[in-house]
Amino acid sequence: MKRTIVFVCAMVASGSVFSEGKSHWGYSGHEGPNHWASLSADNFACSGKNQSPINLSGFIESELIPIAFNYSNGGYEILNNGHTVQVNYKKGSSIKIDGTTFNLLQFHFHAPSENHINGHSYPLEAHLVHADNNGNLAVVAVMFKEGAANKGLTKAWAMMPKYEGDKHLLSAMVPVDDILPKERDYYRFNGSLTTPPCSEGVRWLVMKQEVTASEEQINAFKHVLHEPNNRPLQAINARAILK
Ligand SMILES: [Zn+2]
C-alpha cells in the first residue's frame, strides 16, 4: 500500500500523469498557474480581475472593525493533498465579520508566501479557511518569518503526512490560536481562492503581525511538497486594500 502511494507521488511530482479522480494542476510547466484557466472550463475564474494572491501595498486608511474570533481547540486531522499540507478543524470555531459568522473549516500552508506585504515575501504563509452558511468564504492569512519554533506547527508536523494522499489523526489537537499572532490587526481586500477553480468573492483578512517558525519547521513543509506551492502575484486592478 505504502509503495503504491510513493509511486503515485513520484509520478505527480514529475507532472506526467493525472492523479486519481481530481482535475490535475500544479505550480510549474503545462499545468502551472499560467495555464490554470485553460485546463478546465471550471477554472474560468482564474483569469478574473479580482484574483489572489496580491502584493498588499497602496493601502487605504480605514476604520476596520476588529474581527471577532471565537476559536476553540479543534485541529484534529492532517493531510497531504499533493498541493499543500492541511489541518482539518472540528466544528464550533468561527469568526464574525460584516455581521456574519464564518466557520473555520481548515488551515493549510504555502511556501514561500503567496501574498506579499509592501513587496516583501515571507518563507511561509498560513491560510485559515472559513465559510458562512451560504458558502461565502473568508480567509485569514498569517505570515511566518524564520525564528523561534511555532508550537502549533510542532504539534501538527509531529504527524507530518509525507506523501500525497496521506492523512493522519493528530495525537495532540492543534489549537488554531497557536499559529495566530497576539495582535490581530489586519489588512483587508477582496480576492479569490489561490488554487483552481480560483473562485472570487473571497474576503481576505491578512494579519499585520507576523509569527515565527523555525528553519527546520519551514524546511519540513518544503520537503514534503517537493516544489514551491505559491501562485504568482496577481494584478490588483480596481481593488482597494484597506488597513
Ligand atoms: Zn491557501
UniProtKB/TrEMBL annotation:
Q: Which Gene3D superfamilies match?
A: Alpha carbonic anhydrase
Where the record annotates domain Alpha-carbonic anhydrase, the positions are 23-243
Per UniProt, the keywords (alphabetical) are: Lyase, Metal-binding, Zinc
- What Gene Ontology molecular function terms does this protein carry? carbonate dehydratase activity; zinc ion binding
| InterPro entries per UniProt | Alpha_CA_prokaryot-like, CA_dom, CA_dom_sf, Carbonic_anhydrase_a-class, Carbonic_anhydrase_a-class_CS
Q: Give the family this protein belongs to, as stated in its UniProt record.
A: Belongs to the alpha-carbonic anhydrase family.
The protein depicted here goes by the name: Carbonic anhydrase
